[in-house]
Amino acid sequence: MIYLDYNATAPTKPAVRAAVMEAMERHGNPSSVHRYGRVAKKHIEAARASVAAFIGVKPAQVIFTSGGTEANNMVLRRTGAAPIITSSIEHDSVLACAPDAARIPVDADGVIDLAAVQAILAGAPPSLVSVMLVNNETGVIQPVAELARVAKAHGHLVHTDAVQAAGRIAIDFTALGVDFLTLSAHKIGGPQGIGALIAGPKVTLQSLLKGGGQEMNRRAGTENVAGIEGFGVAAQLAADDLLAVPRLTKGRDELQSRLVDIGGDDAVIPGARAPRVANTLCIAMRGVPSETQVMGMDLEGIAVSAGSACSSGKVKASHVLQAMGCANDIAGSGLRISLGWNTQSTDLARCAEAWRTLYQRTHTNRRQKAA
Amino acid sequence: MSNIVGFSDYAGTVHGDLHCWLCQKQVSSRALFCHHCGTIQPVRAIDHFARLGLERRIDIDPEQLEHQYAALGRTLDPQRFMIRGIGERGHAAKQLEALNRAYEVLREPLRRGRYWISLHEKESKEAAAAHPFVVELRQELDMASAPSQCDRVAQKAGQALEVGIMSLMQALRGENWQQANATLVELEGLESILVSVRARRGKLMPADKGKGGIGSVK
What we know:
Order of helices and strands of chain B: EEHHHHHHH
Largest sheet of chain A: 7 strands, mixed
Oligomer: heterodimer
Strand order of the largest sheet of chain A: 2-8-7-6-5-3-4
Strand content of chain B: under 5%
Strand order of the largest sheet of chain B: 1-2
Radius of gyration of chain B: 24 Å
Number of strands of chain A: 12
């Protein structure tokens, strides 16, 4: 079985597994003052420094959470009555926290419309603006730095969900100019169940969870020591993922060309004209439901996703592709192929052959039905 | 069996031909860390573009260069290796030095241009030496035991050179730059054969007859 679903979760890197195992062989609550507690605390702070260096902030700005969803909830729900402005292509964990939020539209390439941003932000009361840095389905990079400049000029706070950007592009919190940023460890080869919210030095944050003074009173509950240590190692190793970007781009582009050659007009690449992260290829096989494609690829030994893999295996028309103005025969037919640290050229070649088999089979079936 | 024709030899982050200095597991030449044991790796012989994770091109995006440099520099910050052993501290320091050198060259357009040309020239020479016909002629020359055998190699190289020049002109007229470049690489290889023929023939000629022996060979 070939795994090409790194945007859902990246396989855990061996050094991360070793760090997690080592941590689990120790015990000690980081809040305890005895030696066991102090050792656990020391390891957490080393991991915090590693995550901080990863995106260019001070360690005190890193708040460990149970993952990206909690971090998004934390920042979006902490504002109380403050209005929220977000985009139409956000992850469910953002959209569900702000069902009534004003939505920034995206263009046909999946990039937020900066002209619309100006109009929406200029007339809004002080709000929290939340726009993802990289879209999880298309891989399109959003102009968050430009958005933040406009938003700040109008007195808004800015949050970016950078879960799919981490390890794919170099992230610099200060250069982005945001107030909050969400990270998740398992997208960069770290363990599942651990993430972080990065908070700017001048913002205050109320804890979503009550009942403990951990994380400097910003997130109650005993820390996930093993997860945090694994996250720290993954954040350090992610530097090598940045070095692999040129080769990854080449592999993704070669795969894209091959699939377009096979499918012709039936192979549509949403977001292909926009700047994209190197590891993501969104391809729609026109008129073939995403679910059918995912199952077909699975039968051929290739693990990929239909858009976002979150929730319980549900597959429906992609809200991202719909927001980009794709017709139903494209929006319901998106397949997400995502590459990563352990992808080989043979994996890409087999993926292309599996897609060819699937394409030929579905079109033969269609012709037979039509006849 | 899968068909991998058309796909580059892409091998993720981890796999490579080298081994970690500590755990001996596989590492890529461009990797800063071993992904099996997490240890910082020694500086490897890679080009400046690869060291900064950039596509090798003259018109790099300055903003991307700055972001890559900043992110990699933070990863290699000596403070982060203070509690590590002397070996790891040394490798981290050298990696940072290599990163800084690469950045200094790539950030200046003029230096970047000179470096890019030097890389291209070096690779052209390597490609020329590896061209199949050039390799064949070189093997024939290595086995030559008489001046007449050297002359035969020179004759073959000379003929191929003439055909190659015609082909080059045709490619240039048709603005087929890829073909022109490939032909140039072959021509460079053939020229180097002619130089080697002269040296080889001189060694094989008796001392008093060796002067000016292959004046006809350019």
